[in-house]
Amino acid sequence: MSSASVRLAGTVTDILTREKTEPQQNIVDALAILAGVAKPKHVRKEKTPDPRKAKRLAHNASTADLRAFVWERCGGKCEASGADLGSAWELHHCQGGPSRRREQRPGNVLALSWDMHRRVHRGDLDALRAIAKAGPLDAEARRAAEYRVEKAARIAGVPVRIEVKETANG
Predict the structure, then answer these.
(1) Beta-ladder partners of 90
(2) What is the C-alpha separation between 62 and 68, in angstroms, rounded?
(3) How far apart are CA 133 and CA 77, in angstroms?
(4) Residue 169 DSSP label
(5) 75 to 84, 108, 116, 169: CA distances (angstroms)
(6) Which three-class secondary structure state does DSSP give residue 102?
(7) CA–CA dist 137, 80 (Å, integer)
(8) Which residues lie closer than 8 Å to 19 by C-beta, 6 or more apart?
(9) Four-point Cα dihedral 133, 137, 140, 143, nearest 10
(10) Which of 32, 49, 83, 117 is deepest in the core (most CB within 10 A)?
(11) Amino acid 1: pLDDT
(12) How far is residue 146's CA from residue 129's CA, in Å, rounded to a whole number?
């Protein structure tokens, strides 16, 4: 590694105002930063907080709490098929739509295996029936699930019959 010598001579005003070579400019910039007179050029200006980011972080925190609650409730089993969930499980919101999905409530979500969740969103009638029969749904979410079964059955041209499991809380 070779060392280069750069000489700056003169008064501070003279050094700051005259034309400099790139190595000389780098030294002047570094000294100005060390003296607290200038900020490094690569430092970004502080951004104002984004309210959407704060809302997203709060939503993620509530989702984490809801996932923990649902995991305890389901005991590691898919609430539609009864299969072991493992680490690849997903929350399924029975009432769809972005505004309702943000209303995170335990009676609106089920713990589903990845495969069951994929089948539900593809409109698989058997998967939709399993969702409608799942126990821990509240009345509003159950109506939404039953409506989806009826709609899928009409499309498939098959009769609809849903037998709902009764739970301890109604």
Answers:
(1) 112
(2) 10
(3) 15
(4) T
(5) 9, 18, 17, 18
(6) coil
(7) 11
(8) none
(9) -10
(10) 117
(11) 46
(12) 8
Tens of pLDDT, residue by residue over 138-160, are 888 888 888 888 888 888 887 76
Name the residue with tokens 């607290």. Answer: 36
pLDDT above 70 for 4: no
Residue pLDDT, tens place only, 103-131: 678 888 899 999 999 999 898 988 988 98
| CA dist 80 → 33, 66, 131, 164 (Å) | 63, 18, 5, 12
The residue length of the chain stands at 170
* Cα–Cα distance for residue pair 111/120, rounded to 1 Å: 12
Q: Where are the domains of the chain?
A: 11-46, 51-156
